[in-house]
Design brief:
The chain is mainly β. It is built from no helices and 12 strands.
Length: about 140
């Protein structure tokens, strides 16, 4: 698993950000610089395979009251999406996001850790299975 390794001034490793999954049985992995987080009325977190096109991404929109535990995807409180390399956004219809650590601030997530799996909706006869997902993010 890859990610951004943060170090102290002495060079000691602090944390490696990870955002991995299987999409339709194939390994999907966020680029080490492909993380973004923000906050409006919802908290948003995204991992992208690249910062330039074409890229794919997995993202989550969650209400500020989202807590540690199993969160059902496909509801108005916890939404997951997969963006394919053609730019189509597929929304999770079923699945879960098991959050084991969460920390927020006014701009988004300071930390997010958990596992997820979901099935998307169908667009033009195509849908995606996102399984074995793991996120371990810390600013």
């Amino acid at each position: 698993m890859t990610g951004t390794v943060k170090t102290t001034s002495t060079g000691a490793s602090l944390h490696t950000n990870i955002f991995d999954a299987k999409v339709d049985g194939f390994t999907w992995q966020s680029d080490k610089e492909g993380f973004s987080t923000s906050k409006s009325s919802l908290f948003y977190f995204e991992g992208k395979t690249s910062n330039s096109n074409p890229y794919s991404s997995v993202s989550f929109n969650m209400v500020p009251t989202t807590t540690i535990g199993v969160n059902v995807l496909g509801t108005s409180t916890c939404v997951a999406r997969y963006r394919d390399t053609l730019g189509y956004y597929f929304t999770a219809k079923t699945g879960t996001f098991n959050i084991i650590a969460i920390d927020t601030f006014k701009y988004g997530y300071k930390a997010l850790k958990g596992s997820f799996s979901f099935m998307t909706d169908t667009i033009s006869g195509k849908f995606h299975s996102v399984t074995n997902g793991v996120v371990d993010f810390k600013l």
